[in-house]
Fold:
Amino acid sequence: MGEEPPSDLAADGAAAPARPLAVVASAFEGISRMIDCDSDGSGDLRLAPFSNACSLVTVLFGCLGLAFKFAELEYASKVNDLIEASKTYDTLSSILDHDIENDSVRKQGSHSRNLRRVRLGLDLVKALFEQYLSSSVCSLKEAASTAYGQVCAPFHAWTIRKAVGAGMYALPTRDQLLLRLNETDDSVKTEMERYIDASRPIIEYIDNLFLSRNITLDW
Structure:
């Protein structure tokens, strides 16, 4: 039986871009530039463009197949919450300040908690790409297992970690991933590096939003 091709639809039902990784990299470069323009450090990154850029990452999880279905579903639900929140709150800092006022930052389903989970998703993809690029002989299973262990495993229960570990055997090969992303060996390196470079300051920015309000990151 041949490999089942990935869906041509994104999580919201829209057609997936022809080169999803390139689209994601461009979107996050745009968000990174917004942070660079915030020279006064006021923390006023707007929620709507941020959450819209994050929604594009869902397609990347889909390209990884059933092994990352848990991440795709959880990540998409959290991003959709932030997209909905952007209709009421203008910035990332405003949702955090609102939850602080209502003592609900860590509460299940709060916008702040969902922002924290989306941040983990962005970091998971970044770590996966870093591992993928670390060696031409590194399998996707090795790269994903290491990335998951670094980023998400510390926050997941044993049952989830076990299920994720079992699912790693269903990951596509490097060649299959290139096909799904519509990239070559050379172009995928360029696009992954673009995402890594653009996402790093965004992840740090989100962390600093919490830390500057004396909220730890151990949850």
